[in-house]
Amino acid sequence: MKGVLRGRAWTFGDNVDTDQIIPAEYLVTMDNRELAKHAFEKARPEFAKGVAREDIVVAGRNFGCGSSREHAPRALMGAGISCVVAESFARIFFRNAINIGLPVIEARLKAKDGEVMVVDLSNGSLRNESTGESGSFASYPPFVMMVVEKGGLIPYTKEMLGCRR
Questions:
Q1: Which of 150, 156, 140 is nearest to 104 (CA)?
Q2: CATH number of the domain at 4-139, out of 1.10.10.10, 3.40.50.300, 3.20.19.10, 2.140.10.10?
Q3: For position 67, what pLDDT does the model report?
């Protein structure tokens, strides 16, 4: 994963719960690509067909509230989302996202659907290129950055232990 992420914004409001991200009936698989086909299926039916690799979700407060399912950040990753920027996250969603290697950034930055966002994980900056508005966020501690860069906690741990698979 590179330190600078650039993609179109998909905007959401406050209290987006995991049932909105991935409806419960699709929790029978852990396949990211299969989950992606149903991401926001009921809340934003156009999402799965319109999302592109490296797009960025921009949301309000308490993103990922609800159940503790790891499927929600997996569905976003499978859809190609490179990062989620929100004013705040439900704690378990935040942790699940980091554990699977999906960058999640707590920051407030106004955006509209389709505007181009740039997030620099290395220096803790973000910018809406469409409007010129910019902001900052607390950079990840080195250990967390390594976990995200390796694609999640399992790949990171396997590499640290010298596992081949």
A1: 140
A2: 3.20.19.10
A3: 84
